[in-house]
Amino acid sequence: MYNGAQRLRPVFMPAKDSMPACRLLSFLAALLSAVLLSACAGVSPPAPSAAYAQAFERAAGQDSMRSECDWNVRYAPVAPADASVAQLQAIATARLAALQLAPAWTLSMPGGEAHAFTDSAQDRAGLQLLLSIVLPTMERYPAGVFARTGLRHVVLVKDLSVDGQRRLAMPAPDIDSVVYADNMLAALCPSGMELRVHHEYYHFIEYRLFNDFYYRDPAWLALNPSGTTYGQGGATAYGKGFQNLGHPQPGLVSLYAAYGPEEDKAEVFGWMMTPAYALRLEQWTAFDPVLLAKRQLLMEVMGTLSGSY
Question: 140-169 burial, b for 16+ CB within 10 Å, e for fewer?
């Protein structure tokens, strides 16, 4: 069995600030530290605005992964706190090139809207955090997987929305891309964002395999207990204060998995590939044969694509 944690682990740091109010103070302090001017300059950094603080709290309250988050998991910065957006983009370009991928800093596709990062203090902090999660996550994959699935670009933007719904990530096979965004990411569960990176890449893989995001794979459906039904698709979970609880019933790794077979697959893959969640998945499969079979099927898919699982 391939264990992604053997290749690269996120940085674990003590963190007791699991409540949103405490996390607000923690992350706003981190934002300020990213833009501190030299003491000899004699200029104080601006305090975060009330609007930013309110947006932070709203984003924290809407994070669907907060109930299943291990808040002790943190990801190492990719550059010094005072790195410019141009410097961060250069780092991303070099690290993605080693994976035979290229970054894109704008998004142009029907239904999807996003903004490019500017060199403001808030954008520098947001891009730093986004890269600290996305880059090591992509580097966790065995060599050759991206080329075999036709992934060529990683789009890195902010304020992503899809058909008017704010999103943190989306697959974009029409432009050979996956899209990852900073939508107040500092307010959210960091390892929950990593899970989303894997989840959306699996949607990309599924599209490449079957030319359909919503393919009803008979091999997958046959694993479900008799009478299993799915919802009306993942988009129907948005905007309802949804919490993606783990293992709500036998055969399902998460509540979001119940929204459709395509989400079921992507959720098992995301939990399987994210070290902060993989142990829980493994524990559940010890007494859930359906979930075990689903994980094994996805490992076989990845084994076909990479030869390394």
Answer: bbbeebbeebebebbbbbbebbbeeebbbb
Q: Are 89 and 105 in contact (CB under 8 A)?
A: yes
pLDDT digits 0-9 by tens, 162-195: 888 889 999 999 999 999 999 999 999 999 999 9
Q: Is there a contact between 140 and 4 (Cβ–Cβ < 8 Å)? A: yes
Residue written as token pair 């995301």: 270
Q: 73: helix, coil or strand?
A: strand
Global pTM reads 0.84
| Distance, CA of 200 to CA of 225 (rounded, Å) | 26
Distances (CA, A) of 106 to 132, 159, 179: 19, 11, 10
**Pairing of the two strands 177-182 and 169-172:** antiparallel
